Amino acid sequence: MSMKQIETLVFDYGGVIVNIDDVSVVKAMESLGVTAFKRLIHVRKIKRLMHQYINGLVAEAETLKEMLSLCRKGTTTGDIEKVLEELCGNLPVERLEALVKLRKRYKVYLLSNINDTLWQKSVSQMNQLGYSTEEMFDEVFLSYAMRKEKPSVEIYEEMTQKTGLNPATTLYFDDRAENAEAGRNFGFQSVLVKTNHLEEHQEWQEIIKNIKE
């Protein structure tokens, strides 16, 4: 299918629009006393807790309390929250500018597994750069608000019902293989993005070229 037939764009947030730095997250965990040894032993627990924290389907307080048990004595939930702000990452202003322009030609949606805290911080990051979510997206679909998360088919179904998009003419960008695959199974034209490197993908270059023409 040619890019000319694409009508709708769906973007993941972390690693696609915002650059996420895993190294800073690891450093931050070390600063809380979650040593490499602890990380190895508790790798599944940490993964689950990070996942749980990010997608916001479990009460944040509950997740933070459980995280506390992995940190050195004397750590507070406030300390953990500061560290988790690292997850907000760094927003390249060129991408935000491109999204505004893309809306002239396409319907543009955001579909993200994210919690309330991180999303509010992300919105204020965008605002500081002079952009609002209303300018960049026709609508945002966030796991914590929907009580659903990618890659479950329900989240794609709800977005489709609410927007009336046609999956066949939708280009979907996500940097997690299981999400990109779920999108493809749902009928989207799926692009597995190399984390933090959206610009390297031909599909991105083509839609950008389309708005210039």
TrEMBL record:
Protein keywords: Hydrolase
Protein name: HAD hydrolase, family IA, variant 3
Taxonomic source organism: Segatella copri DSM 18205
InterPro entries according to UniProt: HAD-like_sf (IPR036412), HAD-SF_hydro_IA (IPR006439), HAD_sf (IPR023214), PGP-like_dom2 (IPR023198)
Gene3D superfamilies: HAD superfamily/HAD-like, Putative phosphatase, domain 2
Top-level division of the source organism's lineage: Bacteria
MF terms (GO), sorted A to Z: hydrolase activity
Membrane-crossing segments per the record: none
